[in-house]
Amino acid sequence: MLAELPVPLRGPFAMMRYLGVRLGDVRGMRRDAYQAGMISFVTGKGAVEVTAPCPEPLARILDAQPDHATHLFSSSDGSPWSEGGFHASWLRVRLRLETEGKVKPGLTPHGVRHSMATDLRELGKTEREIADIFGQWTTYAVTGATSAATGAPMTPMCRSRTGRGP
């Protein structure tokens, strides 16, 4: 699906897909959030600091993003994404992709984020590890966002309420 998106939407959706970042955090992400192969930001919901290695597919997309003065992602006119502008752009693209049979009807940015949680569960991540990756203090929301599966554990992410990452 990511390959079908226009460049201004591809980066934000890749961030949600590969790291489970909330749309509000993606839209507000500063340019310096991606450095030296790492993504670092503070979540808007819960003020949790998240520092995570940038997966290779996401790094390729971020490296191809146009440079902007302040934000990592911006609309086609170069300004930071507004909530309404993002949703209007996504609606146009989503309707086209639905017509072409490339996405299920009604796909939302939040749904893309939740698919990442399911993938992590299928790879054997625990609810605590998934909550850490998603920048959540508790595992409460993770239970509803994942399906039961088993697999090999992956490297845990780091979070802290104060200070800077690991």
UniProtKB/TrEMBL annotation:
GO molecular function: DNA binding
One of the GO biological process terms: DNA recombination
InterPro entries: DNA_brk_join_enz, Integrase-like_cat_sf, Integrase_catalytic
Residue ranges occupied by any Tyr recombinase domain in the UniProt entry: 7-135
Pfam families: Phage_integrase
Keywords: DNA recombination
Source species, domain of life: Bacteria
Protein name: Tyr recombinase domain-containing protein
Annotated source species: Methylobacterium terricola
Classification lineage: Bacteria, Pseudomonadati, Pseudomonadota, Alphaproteobacteria, Hyphomicrobiales
